[in-house]
Amino acid sequence: MAERAAYADVIIDISHEQIDRPFQYRIPDRLIGAIPIGCQVLVPFGRGNSLRKAYVIRLSDTCTFDPDAVKEIQDISTDMAAAREQMIALAAWMRQEYGSTMIQALKTVLPVKETVRHVEQKRIVRCEDNHVFEAYVQLAEKKKWKGRLRLLEALKETGEIPWFLAQKQLEMTAAIIRPMEEAGVIRLDSQISYRDPLSGGCACQNQEKPLLSLNPQQQRIVDTILSEYEAGIRTPCLIHGITGSGKTEVYIRLIEGILSMGKSAIVLIPEISLTYQTVMRFYSRFGSCVSIVNSRLSQGERYDQFERAKRGEVRIMSGPRSALFTPFENLGLIIIDEEQESTYKSEQVPRYHARETAIERARLSDAVVVLGSATPSLEAYSRAKKGIYRLFTLTKRAVEGSSLAQVQVVDLRKEMEAGNRSIFSRALQQKMEECLEQKKQMILFLNRRGYSKAVSCRSCGQPVGCPHCAVPLTEHTGSRLVCHYCGYTIRIPKTCPSCGSPYLAGFGTGTQKIEMLVKERFPEARVLRMDYDTTNGKDGHEQILQAFSAHEADILVGTQMIVKGHDFPGVTLVGILAADMSLYNGDFRSRERTFQLLTQAAGRAGRGNDPGSVIIQTYDPENLSVRTAAMQDYCSFYEEEIRYRKMLAYPPEGSMCEVMTASESAEAAGRWIDKIALLINQSYHGTMTVIGPSDAPVARIRDFWRKHLFIKSNDHRSFLEALERISELEAELHKDKVYLSVTAL
Ligand code: ADP
Ligand code: ZN
Ligand code: ZN
C-alpha cells in the first residue's frame, strides 16, 4: 500500500515547533511512489502558503482531512544536512524495529529546541602562582570546604575546566566559585580556547604525567581497529577485557586515531559510571572538544551541546544512551563501555537498545562500533563467537604489579551450623579486622533486589503493602514506610492492617542495617553508605564517591551502584554479603546478571599496588554464577549458560518478548491478555510458545492492573509478524481503556 499511497502526513520543521501535530498533504501523481517515510519535502504552509520543509511520517490511501481543502506536496527537498538525514533514517529504523510511532522515534533522536538561556562558554582557570594556589588548598583543607576542595583538586590536574563541566559534573555553583575568584586563586575566562585536537599534544597544563605506553595486548587492539577502519572495514568490535585491564586507555587511543582522520566520536558510558573521574580522564586528554550529555541537562542544554557538535566545536560526545543521537556530520567511531548494562535499554517508547541502535547509526554514518566489557552480554559474546563481531581480549591487569584479587567462597549454611548468626562470616570478620589494622579500605556489597526492607506481620505473615501498587512498602529511617513505585508514604502502623495484630517487624537486611551492624562491630571505623536513599539528593552520588576516594572513610557499604566501574586504588577487601540474593527473581537473565555483579564487585579489590581479597558469602556455593564469578572465569560461565539458553530457546538463541496489558479494570486487562494468548496459540501453533498469561510481578501500579505474557520463538520472521499483529490490536484496546506494551527481551 505504502508505495502507491496518495496522501502523506508530514510534520513541519521538527526542532522548532510542535512536532506533535502532523498535517496531511496530497502526493501529486508525478511523485507517487517516490516519497518514503522520513523523506524531506517542500510544502505550502500557513495562510500565505509559503514553502516550508517538512518530514513525511506516515503514508496513507485515504484522506482524513477535507479532500477539497487538502494541499499538495510541492517537491522533494534534497538539501538536508547529512547528520539530519541520518537521524531521520535512524528514527524510521527504530520505528520499525521497536514498534513506535514515527513522531515518538523522531522525538527520541532529535532534541526539541527550547528557548535556552545561552550557555556561556566560560572556563575556570587556576592562578599561575603556585604559592597562592597551594596556600589556598591548605586553607580549604583546614576549613573543610568540600566543594572548593573538589574544584581545587580538579584544577591541580588540569589547570582549567570549562564552566559547563564544572557545573554539570562537579556540581559547582556561583556561591562556591565567587569567594575563590575574590581570593585570586582562580579566574573566570569567558572564551574557551578551542584546542585543535589534530595539532596533537595534551590539553593538560601540568605535563608531569607522561602518556602511558600501551602494553602489547592494548597496542594490538588499537592498531588493528584503526588500520581496519582505514581499510574501510566496519565490522563491530567487542573488547572483552577483565576489570582494570586498560580498556578505557584503549578507547582514548582509538579516539585519538579517529580524530586525526578528521572524524568525531561518541562514547557511551552508563550514567552511574559517568563520574567526574571518568569525564576528567577524557577531558585532560582532549580538552574542550569533549562534552557530555547526561540526565542533569535540561532539554535546552542538551540541544545546545548537540548544536556545538554540529558546528564541530565538540568532537567527542560522552554520555549515557542519548549521546548516541549527537548530530556529528562526520562520525567515525561509537564506543559503548560496559555494553551489557541494562540501562542501555530505553524504558520509554521506542524501547530501543543502544547497542543495536548504535550499530544502525554507524551503518548510516559509515562509522565503526567498539563494545567493551569485562562481562559481555550473552548477545554480544555469542555474536563475537559467530564472527558477526570481531573479538579482542585483554587478559591482564594494566597496572604493573596489580593482579586479580584472591577470592574465597564462604558457605553461609556452615556458618549457621557453627553457631555464627552474624551477617559477617568468620572469614570476613577476620579480613575486615586485618584491613582496618593496615589502614586500607573495604567495600561491603549487598546484592539486593526487591523488598528486603519490608515490614511484615508476625502473626499473619502479610507485609504492609501499598494501597495503589501491589508491592510491599519499604522501611525508611524515621519510622516511615515508602512505596518505591508511586512514592506513597505512611508512618509504620501500630497494628497489622490485615489482622490487627500488634506484632509488626522489619525483616531481611538492608544497607542501613548493615551500616549499623558494622558500626556496632567496628566502632572505630568510618563508614559511608551509598544506595537509593543516600544518593537521592542532586549530588549525593558524586560526593560519596569523592569522599571515599579521598579516604575519608574506611568502609563503603552499598548496593549495585558501588561496584560499577569505579576505580578506588585504596580498596583491598571486598565483601559480598549475600551473593545469591539476585538469583531468584524469575527472570531468565538473573544468572547472567548475578554473574556480572559478582565479577564487577570482585574486580573492585586490589586495583592499586596492594593485593586484594574478596569474600563471597552464599547459601549456594555450587551455583553456576557464584562458582564461575569466584574464578573470574567468563568463558566457563558463557559456555554453560548459552547451552541452557539454547535448550530453552531463550535469547540470544531465540526471540522473546513480553506483552503487557494495563487497565484500571482488572477484568479488561485480563480479557485482552487472554485474547492475545489465544491469537498467538491459534495462529502460530508450533512456531511460537506462549508463557502465561499471568499477573505481572508488580500486579498493580498507580491503580492500573497489569497482566502479562511472554512469547518465545525460534523463528525470528514469524516472531516479528506476530508482533505486528499484536500491535494492530492497539486501537481496539484503547477503545476499551486498556494500554498495550510489547517489549523485546
Ligand atoms: P578498565 O577500563 O579496563 O577497567 P582502565 O583503562 O581504567 O581499565 O585502566 C585501569 C588502570 O590501569 C588505570 O589506572 C590506568 O591508568 C592504568 N593503565 C591502563 N593502561 C595502562 C598501561 N598501558 N600501563 C600502565 N597503566 C595502565
Ligand atoms: Zn497480620
Ligand atoms: Zn505505590
Explain what this protein looks like in three dimensions.
This protein has a seven-stranded parallel β-sheet with strand order 11-12-10-13-14-9-15, with helices on both faces. Strands 16-26-25-17-24-23 form a six-stranded parallel β-sheet, with helices on both faces. It has a five-stranded antiparallel β-sheet with strand order 2-1-4-3-5, with no helix packed on it. The radius of gyration is 28 Å and the shape is globular. It contains 22 helices and 30 strands. One zinc ion is lined by residues 457, 459-460, 462, 496, 498-499, 501.
Record the SSE blueprint.
Layout: E1 7-12, E2 23-26, E3 40-45, E4 50-60, E5 75-76, H1 82-98, H2 102-109, E6 123-126, H3 130-143, H4 146-158, E7 160-162, H5 163-169, H6 174-182, E8 186-189, H7 216-230, E9 237-241, H8 247-260, E10 264-268, H9 276-286, E11 290-292, H10 299-311, E12 316-319, E13 331-337, H11 354-365, E14 368-373, H12 378-385, E15 390-394, E16 406-411, H13 412-417, H14 426-437, E17 441-445, E18 455-457, E19 474-476, E20 480-482, E21 489-491, E22 504-506, H15 511-521, E23 527-530, H16 540-549, E24 555-558, E25 571-576, H17 590-602, E26 613-618, H18 624-630, H19 634-648, E27 655-663, H20 666-683, E28 688-701, E29 704-713, H21 716-727, H22 730-735, E30 739-744
Any idea what the CATH architecture of the largest domain is? 3-Layer(aba) Sandwich
How many domain regions?
A: 5
* CATH topology grouping of the largest domain: Rossmann fold
CA-based gyration radius: 28 Å
Report the portion of residues in β strands: 15-25%
Small-molecule binders: adenosine-5'-diphosphate, zinc ion
Q: What count of helical segments does DSSP give?
A: 22
For the report, how would you describe the main beta sheet? 7 strands, parallel
In CATH, what is the homologous superfamily of the largest domain? P-loop containing nucleotide triphosphate hydrolases
